[in-house]
Write a structure and sequence with these properties.
Order of helices and strands: HEHEEEEHEEEEHHHHEEEEE
GO molecular function, one term: biotin--[biotin carboxyl-carrier protein] ligase activity
Radius of gyration: 18 Å
Bound molecules: adenosine-5'-triphosphate
InterPro entries: aa-tRNA-synth_II/BPL/LPL, Biotin_CoA_COase_ligase, BPL_C, BPL_LPL_catalytic, Transcriptional_repressor_C
Strand order of the largest sheet: 1-2-5-9-8-7-6
Distance between the termini: 41 Å
Number of domains: 2
Number of helices: 7
Keywords: ATP-binding, Biotin, Ligase, Nucleotide-binding
CATH class of the largest domain: Alpha Beta
Structural class: alpha+beta
Catalytic activity: biotin + L-lysyl-[protein] + ATP = N(6)-biotinyl-L-lysyl-[protein] + AMP + diphosphate + H(+)
Helix content: 25-40%
Shape: globular
Number of strands: 14
Largest sheet: 7 strands, mixed
Domain BPL/LPL catalytic: 1-187
Strand content: 35-45%
CATH architecture of the largest domain: 2-Layer Sandwich
Length: 254
């Protein structure tokens, strides 16, 4: 991939860097956060130690996926950032939809295609002394899913071979523009304008789910979408409850 071409295709005036190989683009940008002066998009052709939530890993093979992180500064610090990972999911899903690949969202922020995970999102933050926060938004998107990689992942994983044939720099530029638009909107208005958009894309709307915390079932009910702050609405036998995204995992049970 070529940084200059991506910048030329993109509307967003974001600096783009491409490296051949690195452990984790999120780790790299987090380390640089104290010195960053402007947003940066860091793309790795090959990411060898991709991270997921709660110490989980994101696996990829060179040439078969997009692995990148976007560093973006928010003036209001951590308190205002609840819901950001979900807004990023909306941006990613809507951009893929515009490009012809229909996808859905699983709370809080997995992008699914035909029920399997197509893309993962990991948002990490570095809070500055003045209270502002650099967010490092890491994204892995499967383009092609070789059997050997799916075996290593250990569960079904989706890919999008049709979009994989698109010019990768153009695809990356479209994703960058979708993210930059969403992040600018989020900075102005928070998650509120994304809630209905998230619910339209909800993969498991109305379906029975369980909420797992370190493998233990914490709640079960019907998934009813998200509220204006990005909390999951769960209709349980005892009524509707709201769940804050943390290290919990959601599974369907139907
Ligand atoms: P859960 O699915 O339990 O809610 P999560 O959303 O927290 O997990 P992430 O942190 O987003 O998961 O991603 C890590 C998980 O994604 C891994 O534990 C693995 O199961 C799965 N995974 C890793 N690499 C890929 C990949 N390339 N494609 C699809 N799934 C993957």
């Amino acid at each position: 991939m070529n940084a200059e071409r991506i910048m030329a295709f993109a509307r967003a005036g974001v600096a783009v860097e491409v490296v051949d190989v690195t452990g984790s683009t999120n780790a790299d940008l987090l380390a640089r956060a104290p010195q960053l002066a402007a947003p940066v998009l860091l793309i790795a052709e090959h990411q060898t130690a991709g991270r997921g939530r709660a110490g989980r890993s994101w696996l990829s093979e060179p040439g078969h996926s997009l692995t990148f992180s976007l560093a973006w500064r928010f003036g209001d610090g951590l308190r205002a950032l609840a819901g950001l990972p979900l807004a990023v999911g909306v941006a990613l899903a809507e951009t893929l939809g515009r490009l012809g690949q229909s996808v859905q969202l699983k709370w809080p922020n997995d992008v699914l295609k035909d029920g399997d995970k197509l893309a993962g999102i990991l948002v990490e933050t570095h809070v500055q002394p003045d209270g502002a926060a650099w967010t490092i938004i890491g994204i892995g998107v499967n383009l092609v899913m070789p059997d050997a990689l799916e075996d290593r992942i250990g569960r079904g994983a989706a890919s999008m071979p049709w979009l994989a044939r698109m010019d990768r720099d153009e695809l990356m530029a479209a994703l960058l523009d979708g993210l930059a638009d969403a992040l600018a909107l989020f900075a102005r208005a928070g998650f509120v304008p994304f809630a209905a958009r998230w619910n339209v894309l909800h993969a498991w709307a109305g379906r029975p789910v369980v909420l797992l915390d370190r493998g233990e079932v914490r709640h079960e009910g019907l998934a009813a979408g998200v509220d204006d702050t990005g909390r999951l609405l769960l209709d349980t036998a005892a009524g509707r409850i709201t769940i804050v995204a943390g290290d919990v995992s959601l599974r369907t049970t139907d």
